[in-house]
Amino acid sequence: MREIKPGVFLIDVQDPERRVFDSLFPTDRGTTYNSYLVKGEKVALIDTADPSKKDEFARELSKVDRIDYIISNHSEQDHSGLIPFVLEKFPNAKVIATKKGREFLTDLLGLKDENFIEASELDLGGKTLRFIEFPWAHWPETMVTYLVEDGILFSCDVFGSHYAFSDIWYDDEAYEYAKEYYAEIMMPFRTIIANDLKKLDELDIKMICPSHGPLHKDPEKIISMYKDWTSNEAKRETTVLYVSMHNSTKIAVEKLSGDLVGKVNVVDISKGISMLKYLVDADTLVIATPTALGDAHPLMLFASSIISAYRPKIKRVAFVVLYEWGTRADKTLEGIFKNYEIVDTIRIRGKPSDSDFESIKKLAENLNKR
Ligand SMILES: Cc1cc2nc3c(=O)[nH]c(=O)nc-3n(C[C@H](O)[C@H](O)[C@H](O)COP(=O)(O)O)c2cc1C
Ligand SMILES: [Fe+2]
Ligand SMILES: [Fe+2]
Q: Which atom of ligand 1 approaches the CA of 247 most closely?
């Protein structure tokens, strides 16, 4: 437990060994589950930790002699899962959540009506907590908590990162992880989150304390990043996603990326599902895939269905399909991305030949016109 402001304590449960989140996304820098204690005359605990780290959390909690309120910004179990444990130790503590949050905590954790009180603001005696609904970040029930006297925003998943730390403040590398976190967790709801963010304009925020990763002492920086990421403004950036079994697709992709101007991200998706961060800013997506089992490579089908569900701000797509005896990959991809402008689809039989390189060059010329 570390005191970050007089009467405000960070309980950072570090999980540096964790390698995957939501059974999907790689977390090569591990993660943390941050909760916070705010002490006025009464004491509030904001969020808890993942149940897999109960022992570490319990060790910290053993240093606490009273908790009057438990603030649950988000019902997902990595933050709420130890609320029942806190209630065992402090049975009179009252839980505060949004209306939907209350339903979710009841369903997910078996909390009872008598565990809750309703409040939009809470006076702890010297410290005032204000609860601000912040829906769809990234569940429908989410809120953030603002500590009025200190100008601290407790934002739970918003502005967070999967980044185990020793220094509690953001560094340049951690911002990269914040972008990845945004892409994988928040991006599907970006238009709603863009609206939520407007609510923060009225607050005098001096520090942001998320529930994963380090803390922000420069709130403006991460808030303006989020405003940029959630906006409809795309950058002149092309992301080329590919998979290649025997290098033919890779050869085609190397040629294409050499012909493209501006920022180009070339991502081999067989290395793991970490392509979403390359779709936060890009205005153009190219998918290059060999045919396997008559269709796009299964990994590309998987990636494509994730991408269409995430609705990134890309404006245009193009496809490069390799095959040998027959393929429906082009039709499948065009169907998945039917809501986007499809610039072109190239079909290449076998290893790319000089005439294929010509087609790739033409595709690049088309994509370079913006
Ligand atoms: C496991 C496997 C399955 C394949 N299935 C098909 C297929 O159903 N239809 C087809 O036209 N080509 C099929 N191919 C041929 C590849 O699509 C073609 O050789 C392509 O150029 C391979 O690109 P790559 O070297 O980037 O993997 C298959 C190849 C492999 C290795
Ligand atoms: Fe979450
Ligand atoms: Fe979380």
A: 25
Q: Is 291 in the pocket of ligand 1 (CB under 6 A)?
A: yes
State the Cα–Cα distance between residues 289 and 287, nearest whole angstrom.
6
For the CA of 137, the nearest ligand: 2
Ligand 1 pocket, 248 CB below 6 A? yes
Block residue for tokens 């505060």: 96
Given a cut of 90, whether residue 58 has pLDDT beyond it is: yes
Tell me, what's the pLDDT at 273?
A: 79
The DSSP bridge partners found for residue 289 are: 321
Task: State which ligand 1 atom lies nearest to the alpha carbon of 293.
Answer: 8
Q: Which CA distances in Å does 158 have to 73, 131, 185, 196, 209?
A: 10, 15, 9, 11, 9
CA distance 4 to 23: 32
Structure tokens at 17: 């060994």
Best of 246, 249, 291, 293 to mutate for ligand 1, by most ligand atoms within 8 A of CB? Answer: 291
Q: pTM value?
A: 0.95
Ligand nearest to the CA of 296: 1
Cα 202 from chain centre: 25
- 76 C-alpha vs ligand 2 centroid, how far in Å? 5
Closest CA to 95 of 160, 145, 34: 145
Q: Is the CB of 322 under 6 A from ligand 1?
A: yes
Q: What is the pLDDT of residues 118-131, one digit of tens each?
A: 999 999 999 999 99
Q: With beta carbons less than 8 A apart as the criterion, state whether 226 and 233 touch.
A: no
Residue 311 confidence class, pLDDT cut points 50, 70, 90: very high
| Residue 251 Cα: closest atom of ligand 1 | 26
Instruction: Give the mean model confidence (pLDDT) for residues 267-288.
Output: 95
Confidence of residue 274 (pLDDT cuts 50, 70, 90): confident
Decide: 222 and 270 in contact? Cβ < 8 Å.
no
Domains along the sequence of the chain with CATH: 2-230 (3.60.15.10), 239-364 (3.40.50.360)
